[in-house]
Amino acid sequence: xxGVQKKNNFLxxxxxxxxxxxxxxxxxxxxxxxxxxxxxxxxxxxxxxYSCLLSGATLSGRRAxxxxxxxxxxxxxxxxxxxxxxxxxxxxxxxxxxxxxxSYYHIDFYKGRGNTTxxxxxxxxxxxxxxxxxxxxxxxxxxxxxxxxQNRIVLFSRNYRDPFNNRPF
Length: 169
Prior knowledge:
disordered N terminus; alpha+beta; six-stranded antiparallel sheet; 13 strands
């Protein structure tokens, strides 16, 4: 299995396309990857936290940094592992059973149908999410801003301040 699963923990990798909540007595989420789907006994947030920890921060720390740097208070996209270009964005409130976490770089395009949106991934697969196209578009743009800011820091570190710590590099 390429998306490393050890001791019932799941590591989000570059192959992870989405994490979907499951309504099951045992499994709490389904992880969609480019090589298949895997069920997990852990919630999406626990999987995100575990993956963030392995790349040097907690989920709450990543959220706090994004919240402060971008003045975002809800549906906060998460730079899970910026060094590996892994950015996850929630489709709605993370408290909602309808919340799906989408991997930014796997999204090819999306098209709304009423209050749902069909997400097409780069590999041609896709899924419907319970969120409007406008909401998905806003999440996509927010995540783009986070990526652009982090890349700007890496590319031009002498000229910019770290938005997460507000100090020069």
